[in-house]
Amino acid sequence: MADPTVGNLRVDGATLHCEVRGEGPLLLLIPGGMSGAARFDAVVDDLAAQYAVATCDPRGMARSALDDPEAEQRVAEHADDALRMLDLLSPGRPARVFGAGWGAVAALHLLTIRPERAEGVVAHEPPVVEVLPDASEHRALIARVQKACRRRSARRGPCRRWPCRPWA
């Protein structure tokens, strides 16, 4: 893996650990779930051949510390964190953004509040069942999965794999 430029970005309520590899137009990768930027290690070098690839551990994950570990986190804060990265690394120029899982929700939120900052957004598997026409069926499925996970956890200990880890 290419050596990254490593730094910290101070945002409201947190200090984000960020890394940039490569040169070219900015591509911001936003991880989801309980993962940090290391989730993208397998693809960053290939992408860095064409882009300046920026990754950050989301607030409260891995190396990105919260000022108040008990603070409730909101999608808008994660989208604002992404915007701060874009403002720092690509001032005045739109960037490409990829988000996975909950990172995709943050990327979509960024797109809705500041569409001029994103040249393109790829939202990979965003858990946004509320926008689907059959949202009630999806909520019911999630509730059944969560109930099954609680039963399994009581019998065998915590689940370590999806779908036992509730994502909503």
How does this structure look, described?
The protein is of the alpha/beta class and 168 residues long. Helices cover 34% and strands 24% of the residues. Strands 1, 2, 3, 4, 5, 6 and 7 form a seven-stranded mixed β-sheet that branches. A hairpin with a 2-residue loop joins β1 (5-11) and β2 (14-21). α2 packs across α3. The two termini are 34 Å apart. The model is unreliable at 158-168 (pLDDT under 50).
How widely separated are the two ends?
34 Å
Average of pLDDT: 88
Radius of gyration: 17 Å
- Portion of residues within helices: 25-40%
Q: Helix/strand/pairing class, anyone?
A: alpha/beta
Low-pLDDT stretches: 158-168
Give me the number of helical elements. Answer: 4
* Secondary-structure element order, N to C: EEEHEEHEHEH
Percent strand equals: 15-25%
Number of strands: 7
In one word, what is the shape? globular
The major pleated sheet works out as:
7 strands, mixed
Quaternary structure type: single chain
Please describe the topology of this protein.
Elements (H helix, E strand, L loop, with lengths): L4 E7 L2 E8 L4 E5 L10 H8 L3 E5 L8 E2 L8 H15 L5 E6 L1 H12 L4 E7 L10 H22 L12
Parallel strand pairs: 3-4, 3-6, 6-7
Antiparallel strand pairs: 1-2, 2-4, 2-5
Helix pairs in contact: 2-3
Short recap of the structure:
It contains 4 helices and 7 strands, in the order E-E-E-H-E-E-H-E-H-E-H. With 168 residues, the chain is an alpha/beta fold.
